[in-house]
Amino acid sequence: MPCDVACAFLVVAVVVISAVVAADAGVSGADDAPSQVHLALGDSVGTSVVVAWLTKNVKSGVVQYGTSSSSLNSKATQAEDAESYFYHSAYGEDYTSGLIHFVNVTGLKSNTKYYYKCGTSSDGFSDVFSFITPPAVGSESIRINFIGDLGQTVNSSSTLAHIQDDKETFLTVLVGDLSYADSAEKSTKGHNCTQKRWDTWGNLVQPVFANQPLMLLPGNHEIEYNVPPATQTSFLAYQKRFKMPSEASGATNGNLYYSFNVGPAHIIMLNSYMDFNPDSEQYEWLISDLAKVDRKKTPWLIANMHAPWYNSDSHHHNEPEEVFMRKFMEPLMFENHVDIIFSGHVHAYERMYPVYNNKTMANATTYINIGDGGNREGPATGYFPQPSWSAYREPAFGHGNFEIFNSTHAHFTWHKNLYTENVVSDDVWLVRNSAISSSPYEHGLAHISGREFDGYAPFKKF
Q: What is the DSSP letter of 159?
């Protein structure tokens, strides 16, 4: 490895270690100060935020907050005692988590900066963090980060640093594969599989997601299911450690699938790894949710799932979760004019032109694969010949930023991690066909000024 690359990686690694140590320490001198602090939207309209954290022994907690860092005069109290969970691995690990706290801070004003700290006066508070609430539902504009397959590597740290440096985006969507704890697998050299990785990941992301809501869906690395006598509850850690606004959207399976409104967008979060056939609860919920969307208030309709329906990379190509979920649900997306579907799973970036039933169609849904957050398995570098519906593909780590300007125009950029630098490699305007006088189509998004790129030629494997 060249010296300049090694030095750059070393700098990032030092920053990550410092952040984890600081996050784990909490407030100086506290006996049981919060760690792994993170936020999520607490309802489907952006007027509440769930503050989550872990402690070792303290079961109670409060959030003190206000619009000034020196005047945290409002208080939200934990509704239920914090709980831990137990996980037994088939390979011998017995793990009991810390106590997991949730406080829903309600009645917040839109587009307002709040400061807060969490914990107890007797056992210690966290540092003071801040966040900005989303614009009101029906507002014209918003910026959202999209990432997938994040993990906890030096590359993950670069992605997080670039998100943290963006001072105009206050919400992130992560389309599955979070910590890569992989507790149902056997550890090997260089591939540690343990529930403890959930704790290191929680500390790693705290500097970013204690300061902006993180909206999640599960990937295959969140399943963590094994045969007896191992823990049999799929998605156990994912369900216990996070609280998404599922009930507000009529969903009844915890964090496994749900939706929410934010500014001008209705965002749907689906699960590739549970039943999705037409007789399933998830499918029936999706039909109900789509029927409730008010395109006058939320003209942008965005869906997300982990396993991509379209993908020209040779990795994770046409897996059952992709083929059959697409078979059952793609007609629903097309009939309801879903604008964009974001996915992960494949560790590379790819933007698709509007496509339906494997054919490029101007009035169909745009697909973007963003499973390049920085996981430990490395970039997915093998490609099939580029299909007509594939606009841009590149096997590198990074994240996406989606900025909506109004009901017809949005701007998407893909930010590649070039060592520690944040480089915009794909830059495209997504404009409704209905807003283009020369277009004969009412639906679908035109890709304007976007590059076409076939990936890194040396990495092709046909």
A: H
H or E element: which one contains 72?
A: none
Q: What value, to the nearest 5°, has the Cα angle with vertex 260 and ends 46 and 51?
A: 50
pLDDT tens, residue by residue, 118-161: 999 999 999 999 999 999 999 999 999 999 999 999 999 999 99
In angstroms, how far apart are the furthest CA atoms of the chain?
67
Closest CA to 408 of 428, 432, 441: 432
165 three-state secondary structure: helix
Helix (H) or strand (E) holding 402: strand 398-404
What backbone torsions phi and psi does residue 240 show, to the nearest 5 degrees?
A: -80, -30
- DSSP H or E stretch at residue 142: strand 142-147
Structure tokens at 315: 């990795």
Amino acid at 270: L
Using the 8-state DSSP alphabet, how is residue 86 labeled? E
Looking at 221, 266, 315, 316, which residue is catalytic? 316
For the stretch 425-435, pLDDT in tens is: 999 999 999 99
Distance between CA atoms of 192 and 179, rounded to whole angstroms?
Answer: 11
pTM over 0.70: yes
Tokens of 271: 């699960």
How far apart, in Å, are the Cα atoms of 172 and each of 148, 161, 267, 336, 441? 10, 13, 12, 24, 31
Task: Share the mean pLDDT of the chain.
Answer: 91
Strand partners, 399: 415
Check: CB of residue 61 under 8 Å from CB of residue 123.
no
Neighbours of 433 (CB within 10 A): 18
| DSSP tally for the chain: helices H, then strands E | 6, 26
Q: Which of 156, 150, 170 is nearest to 40 (CA)?
A: 170
Cα distance between residue 344 and residue 372, in whole Å? 7
User: At a CB cut-off of 8 Å and minimum separation 6, what does 10 contact?
Assistant: none
Beta strand extents in 297-389 (DSSP E only) = 300-304, 340-343, 349-352, 355-356, 359-360, 366-370
DSSP state of 22: H
Nearest Cα neighbor of 367 from 336, 390, 400 is: 390
Identify whether 316 is a catalytic site residue. yes
Only one residue has tokens 């506290």, namely 30
Query: Is the separation of the CB atoms in 44 and 259 below 8 Å?
Result: yes
Does a cis peptide bond (omega within 30 degrees of 0) precede residue 229?
yes
